[in-house]
Amino acid sequence: MEWGERGRLWAVDLLRFPDREVRSHTGVAARAVRGEEDVVVAARVGRAALAPLPGFGVGDALASAALVTVDPAWLPVYDRHSPRGPAPARSVPHPPGLGGTPGT
What we know:
This protein is mainly alpha-helical. It is built from 4 helices and no strands. The chain has a domain of 51 residues. The chain is globular, with a radius of gyration of 14 Å. The termini are far apart.
């Protein structure tokens, strides 16, 4: 099986995944991201919340791309260009007024 076929399989599995479960996992991820002060911890917790969804359990690129929609001005995208992510010693505090609570 080539990667393209494998990619289509997880996408089909995700489309067939019960909507209430997708909403549950994405809701947990969004709340975790909004509730964190440290961008590294926020990204880690958010990606872990999405891991049970088809296609999100291996690698960080897809999960971080989904999470960046929660707070695009704050969260990074982890992909092949950033294999280690931001260094914990240089973690950035959550900017005031972004995330935290919906509508702020």
